[in-house]
Amino acid sequence: MDDLRECQPTFMAAVPKVLSRIRERALTAVSGSRLKSAILDTALSRKSRRLSQLRVDKDTLWDRLVFRRVQEGLGGRVRFVAVGGAPISADTLNFVKAALGCPVVQGFGQTETCGLGLCQRPGDPASNHTGRPMLGIEVRLADAPDADCPNAEADGRGELCIRGPTCFAGYFKQPERSAETLDSDGWVHTGDIAQLLPAAPTASLTGSSTCSSWPRASTSRRRRSSWCTA
Known about the structure:
The protein has 230 residues and is α+β, with helices and mostly antiparallel strands. 33% of the residues lie in helices and 24% in strands. The chain has seven helices and ten strands.
């Protein structure tokens, strides 16, 4: 954290543990005072209400009274935060959005997809999903019986698969391992379980599975649900 204060970044790419530590420090700082705890709770409530109205700012009364120390602890210049690499709790995500007063987005990607496959759009107030497919990326859910997802199409929950121009062509000189991850139709099987949210073409990552036995039937016979960016 001291390095962040010294470097004064304007953009942060962080894993959830870093953001969780920011929240824990703030909660610890007020834990000895009921009054300070109540003020922090009120500040979070008021800033969260503004976020739900798509008002992302850091010049409110609550920023000056409460959140300025959090912002200065990261150098005072952060304008955008991207988080990924592991699940993040809604409490942590909402706290960071309110405290930093800047867009904080979740994303999902792997080495095999050469970076992001899905990402929230800046200004999205939701904390329960990892966003929409990136431009040119197709995403679908495949059956994963070994992860208690036998019918992805009906349940809207299954193994997350990604296809697009950024996906890899296979592991170097490892055809058997490549065949376990990349099927004949170009879908990268991530091994992660996702849920398709009905309100919009967004995905919520619900955990990592051992999806090593995805169906080997042809794509036309494999149960699936898919969506892509326009």
